Amino acid sequence: MEFTPTVSQEQLVKIRRDLHRHAESGLSEFWTTSYLAEHLAALGCEVHLGEEVMDRSVMMGVPDPETQEARLKAALAQGADPKWLDKMNGLTGVMVDIRPDLPMHSVLRFDIDCVDVCESQDADHKPTAEGFASINANECHACAHDGHATIGLGVAMELMRRRDKLKHNVRLIFEPAEEGSRGARPMVSAGLVKGAKYFLAAHIGVNSTQDHALVCGTQGFLATTKFDVELFGLASHSGSDPHKGHNSLLAAATMLLNLHAIPRHGQGASRITVGMMSGGSGRNVIPDYAKLVCETRGATTEINQYMFDKAKLIIEHAAAMYEQKVKVTIMGSAGNAVSDKKMIDVVKQAAQDVPYFHKDLITEMGQGFGTDDACTFITAIQEQGGFGTYAQIGSKLPAGHHNQRFDFNEDLLQPSVELFCRSTFIMDNMD
Ligand SMILES: [Zn+2]
Ligand SMILES: [Zn+2]
Fold first, then answer.
1. 364: CA distance to ligand 2 center in Å?
2. Model confidence over 314-373: pLDDT tens digits?
3. How far is the CA of 180 from the centre of ligand 1 (A)?
């Protein structure tokens, strides 16, 4: 297939840096969604937003209303178009169909949210040195989703120019809140992959940390459950009446230690992390409130369920020890999925014609690390008889994912756009 890129590497780098500077946390990607909507509309795409793309009734882990309001205001102050913000109606994420007049066929997924970490101010951190570090405190594109969204926009530009050559519809999904596994479920529930046969998503880096490398499929994702635990005790005077209080922080600390002591599962990897603990109100007050922010993971959905069930048992009993009322809220979840050989072959074949990817560095199946919400899409597609894959685009990384010094090699942007476009046309010619 002839493919002469029409979107320049310079254009893509500019988009990537715009997105990087305006990093936004999951479900608060107001500026980012508005930016993508503006660019997609300019290409002539009908832009789908808000309740068209997100089923509000199944959403989990939505930031509290004050946080959302503050982030919305920040997005407006940073130049987000009120026209798009109105259409979003508080929901982030975008979807476009390249050929809405043709039958639904393939879906490309690009995630757009950032990580809750403060970007490094070190002079040798490239985004800081070159002036495109995040302007939002504790919001940083430390997982390359700025790169993914850029590739998605590039793919939209290239496909819109070639739309007459397509025999089927191609749907581009810009997913909010991949972090915390919160974006895919509401999108699947809104029907975004209904009728689709083929699914392709890719992540920069992961276990592919060599420039010019490409892993065409992934296995070994971890299923996960994200949950918050809130403890409600009883405050009392720490000098005169400590015996009258019900200490929520002690209960939380007991939980924390025992959650991390859950026996490992014999049939595969398991994880538990209490990532945050907070509570109490003053030095001389027996703490009457505490909160733990936690997650479990497992090599299979069953192993993750084992971890979560054990966690619930510990939470319940540690709460009883300290006479606490306890509330567990599920904030996000994802299963695991294995890429299909049929789709791995599509990506592999497409990569043969993208010179950037070195032939000896193209591999079929790699290991995932952690979790990706793409699994929720892949599972939905597989359940309706379709096929999906999750590729890993190689890049040397100055620091690991979710680290404040994370960055990736921008040279991969244009070749990745080409990879997605070539894959799309291969899928388009499959039944
Ligand atoms: Zn991540
Ligand atoms: Zn990621």
1. 20
2. 999 999 999 999 999 999 888 889 999 999 999 999 999 999 999 999 999 999 877 899
3. 8
